[in-house]
Design goal:
Blueprint: H1 2-25, H2 28-65, E1 82-84, H3 92-98, H4 111-128, H5 134-150, H6 162-175, E2 178-182, E3 189-193, H7 194-199, H8 208-215, E4 224-231, H9 234-237, H10 240-253, H11 258-273, E5 276-279, E6 282-285, E7 304-309, H12 312-323, E8 331-335, E9 340-343, E10 346-351, E11 354-359, H13 378-394, H14 399-415, H15 421-439, E12 451-455, H16 459-471, E13 475-479, H17 484-488, E14 502-507, E15 514-519, H18 523-535, H19 543-551, E16 561-565
Parallel strand pairs: 1-3, 12-13
Antiparallel strand pairs: 2-3, 4-7, 4-8, 5-6, 9-10, 10-11, 14-15, 14-16
Length: 566
């Protein structure tokens, strides 16, 4: 390795000498033109080299993963990734794409569209955030985008055919009136007929880690049963009048003033009363319970675990009594079997030494994660594995169960296009982070920076994000805007783009005149203001409206308007 770095350094010195000689003998304009020409040729050669290198690496990976069947030998059996409840048949290529999951992001290879979307997002940041070094930042961003526009941008072979499969899937969904959704648990992609879908929706803990901390030292008698209660259809069965009354009583008992209590209660009731939704072109009002997606909905108890000092018959009597308290609310009961109980994502075992824990996965759980081919930032792709590893370390697993869980994670990684060795690397990083966290208290950690988002289109987005971090205190995060879920799953009636807000573009119907604007209100409201200058002779507030009036040109709200960013 040192030998190659030494050669690289010598070549770099020689190139600098050649550059200085040429710069001294050529005019500034000629040198700039020559330099740009050489840069473009070098980019082409680099691209060819990278393509060749990627093919070699992929070939080696295929050889290495030819034996990954050994990773299938885990104790966990996963549910199929796709559940097709319809009569529609999907071919092998279509099923391959569906098996990527609804979080899989389709890469965009239209350079003009990528540059346009990035410019809109960047200009929005420039307008909404005050930069101290705006001009150098803007110049560097322009330089990066210019080089990207001149670069070769070819579709990798392993992504060819995805767009054709996506089009055929969309056609089958439309022709057969199908609905694509994600299962409530397990990340399974569910395909079903739309008609079937319409007929079918102090002693508390936040997560399994907190549960472990609370009960790890508990010792249970032989006559004590572990059991759990779960509310059926929680959101749609919460009794709103009684819940609001309980909330009001808690406010009265608090130290808040009557004025604040009345305001908080009124605002909460207002939010809960806004339970209207649109489905299949009709407006509905939910009569009972809480609407799923309402920010107040998750604030209620769902899963309950108990240690019951009594017989199974007495436990069933307790269940019947609980279910008699309110007509809307019904609990289900699960009792320990063979001294083990599944609760949340844990299996709790009773042993002679106390309680032991294992990772629990439901029968509906798939082995799906964001695929390595997905157009996501690498950190996003690996976030699920980091979460699994964090849970693994927070759960007091013995050595055998720890090894079993590592084997399961390696299986999941291989099934989603990653080298299983990446799990070992993430485990090492997690252990190092735990050691660092023990040495440094949370008080000495840096404060959180302002966070803004731009879409991820590969390395070009990462380069722009690095520029913002270099010239500002702004933290740029990335999000995928072209996932299969967004492209295939349209379970909710879409909001017409004219009723949205954001950056929009107006185009004259008879010439190439364009107007780009930004509105915090609905676009249709802003368009009507533009058209006022078109209809009223002495109204010159809108340059676009004046153009239409003076030139007697046409404008169509549906065809000549485009929502660029929202």
């Amino acid at each position: 390795m040192r030998k190659w770095y030494k050669k690289k350094y010598i070549i770099h010195l020689k190139l600098n000498i050649i550059r200085d000689i040429l710069q001294g003998r050529m005019s500034e304009l000629s040198f700039s033109s020559f330099s740009n020409s050489m840069k473009m040729k070098a980019d082409v050669l680099l691209h060819v080299f990278r393509r060749t290198h990627q093919k070699k690496v992929q070939k080696l990976r295929d050889i290495a993963w030819a034996h990954k069947e050994s990773l299938q030998d885990t104790k966990v059996r996963f549910h199929p990734r796709v559940l097709n409840l319809s009569q529609t048949v999907f071919n092998e290529d279509e099923n391959r794409l569906l098996n990527m999951g609804l979080r899989f992001s389709m890469a965009i290879f239209n350079k003009s569209k990528i540059v346009e979307n990035l410019i809109i997002a960047i200009e929005t940041l420039f307008r909404t955030y005050r930069f101290q070094n705006l001009f150098p930042l803007r110049n560097n961003v322009i330089s990066v985008l210019s080089r990207f526009k001149r670069s070769n941008f070819l579709r990798p072979n392993n992504l060819r055919g995805f767009n054709a499969s996506l089009r055929s899937i969309k056609e089958k969904i439309s022709a057969n009136n199908l609905l694509v959704s994600k299962a409530d648990k397990g990340n399974c992609v569910v395909i079903m007929n739309k008609e079937d879908y319409i007929q079918k929706s102090v002693y508390s803990i936040k997560n399994s880690s907190e549960l472990i901390n609370k009960i790890i030292d508990v010792r249970l008698d032989d006559n004590t049963l572990m059991a759990s209660f779960d509310v059926k259809n929680l959101f749609t069965t919460v009794p709103l009048p009684q819940t609001l009354q309980v909330f009001k009583n808690l406010l009265i008992q608090s130290e808040l003033s009557d004025e604040i209590c009345n305001a908080v209660y009124g605002l909460t009731k207002l939010c809960l009363d806004q339970n209207f939704f649109v489905f299949d072109g009709k407006i509905y009002s939910q009569e009972d319970g809480l609407s799923i997606g309402n920010g107040l909905s998750p604030l209620y108890v769902d899963d309950i675990i108990i240690a019951f000092d009594g017989s199974r018959e007495e436990l069933l009597e307790l269940l019947n009594w609980i279910n008699s308290l309110h007509n809307n609310i019904e609990f289900t009961l699960e009792v320990e079997e063979d001294k083990s109980l599944n609760f949340l994502d844990l299996t709790i075992h009773r042993t002679n030494q106390g309680l032991a824990f294992d990772i629990f996965r439901k029968l509906t759980q798939t082995d799906h994660s964001i695929d390595n081919l997905s157009c996501h930032q690498l950190g996003h792709k690996l976030s699920a594995f980091r979460a699994y590893i964090n849970r693994m370390f927070k759960s007091p697993l013995d050595s055998d169960r720890f090894s079993d869980e590592v084997a399961v994670l390696k299986h999941i990684s291989a099934q989603n296009g990653y080298e299983p060795a990446i799990i070992d690397e993430l485990i090492t990083k997690h252990q190092n982070k735990m050691e660092i966290d023990q040495l440094h208290s949370s008080e000495n950690r840096s404060t959180t920076l302002d966070k803004k988002y731009i879409s991820i289109y590969g390395n070009i987005s990462l380069k722009i994000g690095n520029l913002f971090r270099q010239y500002s205190d702004l933290q740029i995060s990335f999000r995928s805007t072209n996932t299969l879920g967004q492209l295939l799953s349209h379970n909710k009636d879409p909001v017409h783009f004219l009723n949205k807000s954001g950056v929009y573009r107006l185009k004259c119907g008879d010439c190439n005149t364009l107007y780009v604007g930004r509105s915090g209100r609905s676009i249709i409201s802003r368009i009507n203001e533009h058209l006022t200058s078109f209809r009223v002779d002495n109204n010159n507030k809108s340059a676009f409206g004046v153009h239409l009036r003076v030139q007697s040109h046409n404008f169509n709200k549906e065809e000549d308007v485009k929502l660029l960013h929202n």
